[in-house]
């Protein structure tokens, strides 16, 4: 994290120098405060303290010349010393015994010996004294005036009886003598580089000794606690933060630092645990190495360094750690120098790296540099103390200051990260808002082109004249399916934006959940195509009404059911409910893939998806469930999920029950929510509201007949008031009753609500379409929503149009009028077509037929009678009222065609030959006047145009999904341009009105017209298909 502050080398070294000066000043102050006043030194094994004033604050060091008896454990008896000639030497304390012998006498570091010192005390003063031994290598016993007062380990003349132990110890004793003899037995059979008494032995009054021993130990414990607290908060930051590795490294660094304190100086750890000298030394070296290892790792991680030399040093420390653990103890003497050399090189490397980092602009690295400087200075002072160049109590402040500076770096880094996160949060919030705005705007912009794409694809798919392969047809269907799914996504994006901006206002009313659920189930069924899924609605019709916004309740149910369909490949999806005094709870249970516990925690968050790879429908963008949850909460309810992987899921939500489920209260809210009119409605009797009859409002003038179906009696009365002045209105509250009454009469329009119990408006429309075509009986649906899924379901079920509630009276009247005008226009068109086809019987055809009859009356009266009969049959069938129907039995059409051909054959005799390839048992229906006009065109413009005439063949062949009807002639044929003109509906003298209208009616009925194959002088084949029902 660069602070972009350039710092020169001079400034860096100046800061380091000032820091060392401050640390040194503190250290010198500590030394002066704890320094012992000048006091007598031991000479020739005697220290004279007769004139010394002892107090409770200060101790003195028993430094100077002690009597030394190598390789001897002499009894603690002064008489023995005086009467026996012994191998006595004078040695300087503190020091290692292998460095104290002169006159070419060499003592090995391993062995045993006796130290003796005589202390002269003030006269006639009885008091408690104490002695504090900081370090003796490596086992010792202390005798005062012949009595054992303290010991550490078990010194012995042989290694087998010896037990070593490191660490300071003290003892308190009382003496009444004016002089005191101190005898110390020392043995060492473990360390190979030191032995004897390397540090001063303190002497003083009992309070002074206790204070010095306890203060040193307490100070070390305080430092350990401080380090432990810092390590804990660093670990806490790692856990709750971004899991930065440097925090873990810092925590581990402090752990090893704590160990280095506990195993060095007063060796506190060894007083708690029974650790031998071998492992105490190993732990000390490991702790020192661990501190620098994790310090180096911290720097590499905190400043993102990829230096190869850092990896080399980390590897060396790792190797060193392994060697320390497994090297035999006699070789440990080599580890100390190696460790010191590696530590020195590491500090040098860290100084170079940190200075380079600071020079590059990251001035925060100065804190780590100062921390390392503090540690290094502390090490230098430690070397001086261990070399007995300086004698002071344990000094903690270099180490504490170094850690505080280190911690300051972490705090500053944490504050910088916090501020950066706050700024990034603001940026992300702004970006989130911009994203929502962008998505909302994009959704608006994409809707129109997306609908255009869907419509174009649908038109290509529906165009029967275009030849599409099965593969291309499947691709188009997939394109339309994906486009509709994208429309749902666009709608979700708009809704989530409105929810965030709190722009959604609920129009709560008393609603029948069964009616809503029934309609939503019809909407969702098309999504189950290709899946073995059974939808089960288990909410009774008499389930208590709930308080909700109808539009939003439909959206909630649709999204939850849609989600269930997405993640259920086969099985059952069930909607059921329960209720208590005030609350209704509804459950959507599926047998799908289920949801794991981790996903359940965040499934209702925006843009969170379940496993989209486990469903063929896809995962969307994860907004549906979030929208559901927010909408349910806006209703005052809760949305929850209970699921297990592989066990399906159960989504549940709650709604408030209607406080007063009476019709009167429901009516007040539903009138406002369903219909919006600009006039005051007449009063409605209470009896009409409670038990509405079938209202048949007639008029003296002929009016279009409209049948209205709605389970809400108030809506029926409102619709009646709006439409009854112009139309004859009949109403009912039941879809079942509607089916009965519609089948009993002739209606110009059906208006139906979508959400109704028992039979929804979708199901009613689907049922009616099995009997009536779109032009025969228009249907207008009233829906609470205008979403794409509602519109698609409405039109796929066969509705002509829809109106979204709440509706305006003017809009409703306009749509009703348009549909009724459509119905009447289609009816008029059919009559016109019949008239056109009747006009096809041209006068010259009548005159020629009558002349033929007159001629036959003179030469063959029997043929005349047959001709008259066929001519009458032809005229009767040409003007039959059945010709205005959409389809008629094929036998009627063939009878008309036979009569026409019989007449023409009588006229032209051998010039006209007719062949019939027709199964007389066929039972199918075709448009009226569809074969005869084609045959007539083939006779007049094909066969008879040849001097010798020709043959006409009428063929009807049975195929898998359709019947093919073909009229084949061997006449003069026609060019491709003329064929194109006929198929494009351009009339000419070859096609006439009959053929043109036949093409148009076939397209209207089957989606495709005629197929014509012809060439000049090659004859003509005209065919069309009749789909099988």
Question: Roughly how much helix do the residues carry, as a percent range?
Answer: 40-55%
Q: Return the average pLDDT rounded to an integer.
A: 80
Please give the number of β-strands: 34
Question: What ranges have pLDDT less than 50 throughout 5 or more consecutive residues?
Answer: 612-619, 661-701
Distance between the termini: 76 Å
Cα-atom Rg, whole angstroms? 54 Å
Domain count: the total is 5
The class by helix and strand makeup works out as alpha+beta
User: Helical segment tally?
Assistant: 28
Shape call: rod-shaped
Strand residue content: 15-25%
Largest sheet: 7 strands, mixed
Account of the protein in words:
By secondary structure, the chain is of the alpha+beta class. The protein has five domains: 9-18 and 216-420; 46-210, Galactose-binding domain-like (Jelly Rolls), CATH 2.60.120; 505-656, Histidine kinase-like ATPase, C-terminal domain (Heat Shock Protein 90, 2-Layer Sandwich), CATH 3.30.565; 689-832, Rossmann fold; 840-1027, Histidine kinase-like ATPase, C-terminal domain (Heat Shock Protein 90). Strands 1, 3, 4, 6, 8, 9 and 11 form a seven-stranded mixed β-sheet that branches. Helix 21 (788-797) links the parallel strand 25 (779-783) and strand 26 (801-804). Helix 9 (365-386) packs antiparallel against helix 10. The longest helix has 66 residues, at 397-462. The chain starts with 8 loop residues before the first helix and ends with a strand. Residues 705-820 form the Response regulatory domain. Its main location: membrane. Its EC number is 2.7.13.3.
